[in-house]
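Morning. Coffee machine broken again, so started the prediction first thing and wrote up yesterday's gels while waiting. Chain of 181 residues, entered below exactly as on the submission form.
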Amino acid sequence: MNLFETQRLFIRSLRSEDFPFFKELFTDLEILEFIPQKPLSEEELLGRFNRNLDWELQDLQERKVDCGIFTKEKEELIGLALFLINEQRGREMGYRFRSAYWGKGYGSETAKGMLHFYFMELNVPQVHATVYIENKGSLRILEQMMTFEKEFYNGKEGCRERSYVLTKADWLKQQNETLDE
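Came back before lunch.
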């Protein structure tokens, strides 16, 4: 199922042929350094992958869902759009890309598409995002699109993170300002 498209990308549910690239996103140490996260075991990988193969649109309201990110020119998994639910039951977005696709603007494009989808399709009142402070690329993206909430120590992952939030009202105001320019 295609969830949404942006100018250069489309976001859809995962298929069995996506597994090798999905695996890379959870085992490549260069990628995990900026999340931070320990590599998943083969069993954990298969479990997470299989949970994200057959989901319905309603699942995005009720549980965490990993969606594949693909370029329109080549149908190969380049990253994941993560539709998350945080500890306060709020909606949270995340994304990660294979390192070969870093620095090409795909993070900004995906974040904009996810915000549009959250607000216009799922009709959520606000979206959160949390990022490791060493992930400079994602920090820049979130600083441009969202409002800084706080910096804190994540004891589970053993790192400092920053959290951001954007309300639907503020997002709509941003969209109107963009149209006025």
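DSSP finds seven helices and eight strands in the chain. Going to sketch it on the whiteboard this afternoon.
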